[in-house]
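Hey, resending since the last one bounced:
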Amino acid sequence: MIVAVDVGGTFTDFVFLDEKGEVSTLKILSTPREPEKAVLKGLEDKIFNEVVHASTIGTNALLGQKGLEIPKVALFVTKGFRDIIEIGRQNRPRLYDLYFEKPRPLVPRELRFEINERTLYTGEILRKVDRDEISFFTDKAVEMGVVSVAVSFLHSYANPYNEIVAGEVLKKKFRYVTLSHEVAWEPREYERTSTAVVNAALMPVVSSYLEKLNSYIESRGAKLYVMSSSGGLVNINEAAKRPVQIIESGPAGGVVSAAEFARLLGLEKVISFDMGGTTAKAGTVIDFEPYMTSEYEVGGESHYGRIVKGSGYPVRFPFIDLSEVSAGGGTIIWRDEAGALRVGPLSAGADPGPVCYGRGGVEPTITDANLILGRIPDYLLGGEMPLDKKGALEAMRRLGDPYEIAETALEMINLVMARGIRLVTVERGLDPADFVLIAFGGAGPQHAAFLAEELGIKRIIIPPMPGVFTALGMLMADFRFEVRKAFPKDPEETFQELENKLMNLKPDYFIRYADVRYRGQGWELTVPVSRPATIDSIRKVFEEKHMATYGFRLDKDIEIVVVRVFGVIKRSKPTLKDPSVEGSPEASEREVFFNGWVKASVFNREDLPLGYKIKGPALIIEKYSTTVVPPRWEVVVGRYGVLEMRL
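The structure tokens again:
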């Protein structure tokens, strides 16, 4: 058996795939302070030989979650660059805020050591590193209680010799050593140094967590793999060595699921929408490949799903292009000092959770709003978790008329999520009306139709097992390993060189990307590259993306800043079956609020045969989710058991 585990802010999801290709599921409440507890609880009494895992432990550690404290980190830099992580790019997240403070440097000044070495941008070594000098500062770092070390020398992307020598000395005294050219082989000293520092800060935390988990899994005779932020799987050694690549591993799994489902259904343009208990995530998939980005900021602020530049720690590593907003079932509804109704960003999480969970929550949430409007049943987890509707009503009543408050709150949260989807479509030069919305997560199918109406989307796919779809996506993910090189002289020759580096892994195929800009521009766009890679073919794709993103082209030469290659090793995928073609499901009725109380049909999803049609208003209930079908919408049961919704 293969097990996929997705640790979320509210629930931890499990999908089990047996040797016959049969799939079973489990969902339990998360244990945020000690996330491994929920994972181990779900695995006990199970027989398995492989575990695929996604976690947000890296993000949580940088945000200062209790129990995940960052240890002491030292930074070795070229002489004259001691303050590079503090100077940064001078971005101000709040331009007119006179009291704004930059994020606290992960390495205090007294733990930054200047080394008298120098490499030119051409790769020529002007001054070799002195091993004795490295040894002197290594001993000093040990005396100061340093646990992990980052090394970032000038132009090491062009020639890493000095970093390699420094690493050889440091590894004699430190277990955790990060060399910048190993995590960010590309120009821009600040971003490369920041990436190395973030990696060094996370290595002890992530390694400790993975070792605890792996120790248990190995004792059961099984192997552990981890979902990366780029949408592929990596082994535990790779994850522990370069934890920057698993910072957004959980959200990436959902987009991988959507991409694989798009491939199954032949959908060339889809929007992945994942709404859980704490957040909602959106990403785009074109021609069955998720949109990628090579820059990200961790531990900072977000504004309606957009990362606020300058508020966190930059990381240069391939990420699936995602927007994430504080909008989930546990998002709290409240009034501000002026009496205005507000939704989020705080969440009730798993403990105590929404009021209706009956676990001590006192503030009304989005789940409470859906419950009192009749849009979800009076229980969760297939009847295992009864909901306290009376308590939800009382909590909502403290804010005003409970039904009016609930309806307004849902409208507000839908606008927040629609804004998040626009970030990965409209702001990328894409029209959401051209896309199919794939909605999942425990709460995604409840809100999908309302989001589609807001965005002009006419077609929605609710996949099978939407409540654990991200975990299912990890079973669909392939292994994916990345290498890159800066400023290639000949694109095709460089791509082949990088592919040769990965040949020992025996990949089934390669995916090529390039970071490209017009000569003289300050920032790049990441574009896919076809074979053979020529300047003309790369320019054509770049200019199309530049036009879609910014609305203009320039009569200038292009410059290829970085090329990167992913080596992909295919894995066997779960077999998804079509529903039975026979059956006449029985429907019950209940009162549901859609601009007033109306009678809606209620179906159990497992009873619906292939081709069955349902007209809204209706609810389609399953173990871990409920699909809300408003008036004017129609649902058809399609291949693999998908629910296809159309206006």
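The domain at 2-65+207-246 is CATH 3.30.420.40 (Nucleotidyltransferase; domain 5).

Sorry for the duplicate.
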